[in-house]
Amino acid sequence: xKKNVLLTGGTGFIGKKLTQLLIQNGxxxxxxxxxxxxxxxxxxxxxxxxxxxxxxxxxxxxADYVIHLAxxxxxxxxxxxxRKKAVLNSRVKSTKLxxxxxxxxxxxxxxxISASGVGIYGAITDxxxxxxxxxxxxxxxxxxxxxxxxxxxxxxxxxxxxxxIRTGLVLGKEDGVLKQLAPLFRYKLGSAIGSxxxxxxxxxxxxxxxxxxxxxxxSTMQGPFNAAVNDKTTNTIFSExxxxxxxxxxxxxxxxxxxxxxxxxxxxxxxxxxxxVASDKIEKTGFQFQYTDLEKALxxxx
Length: 302
Description:
The protein is of the alpha/beta class and 302 residues long. The chain has helices at residues 13-24, 57-62, 81-104, 140-150, 153-157, 177-186, 205-217, 235-245, 257-264, 269-272, 280-283, 294-301; strands at 4-8, 28-33, 43-49, 54-55, 65-68, 111-117, 129-130, 162-167, 169-172, 175-176, 202-204, 223-227, 276-277.
């Protein structure tokens, strides 16, 4: 009988790709969704509502693994007080809902794997290379990721192997950051942002999905893992490489920081700051990145 993986956020950018990979590797997939959807093939849909605290318990009872990707898009809207609350609650309350269902049903999983972000290290630009022992920052990004990960601790206390995947900037076809950037660069209107010195730890979506698969298959994996290539990519390097892929050299000046702060408010931190992260821990498990060259990764996506 096929092992079952329960996915939250399964209909999103990463979730869709991960679902395909899991099925290709012999798993059945259950997806928690807010709306009713029709089952097909090895994919089953179950409903939940984070705000009302309801969940179809059959999804948990059927699961051997949980991969928790669900959360409001951090970069979708300006960071008003209500928006910040929604971003945090969507991650923490959803994790607590899953935990409650596990406890009520005395359900033992083979593993609980939660998304997180390299934003845990803070909206800072410096030369430190952050590894999984680097303390979380106390800014908004750091707090969100820290509370998200902390919400998984009680899952671990149930005796369930628990992993947090601290994800960098995800590169993929027709979605993610390239969905916003590609049109500008395609028409030769792209440029670096702010100082251009902020680091952009990135990962190809294929590699990210294989890290999640690795976390399922490798019973020694536990705790946080950075999921990003450590290659010194700054915003300037990223922008110049993206322009090169489209066949030209950047001719426009950097977008001034003050312009982005006027347009985006506090959310401008997402593009104006960035730290390097180490990938040693995930590589020591035997995982090998398929994409470590930024230009090749971008060409594959575009």
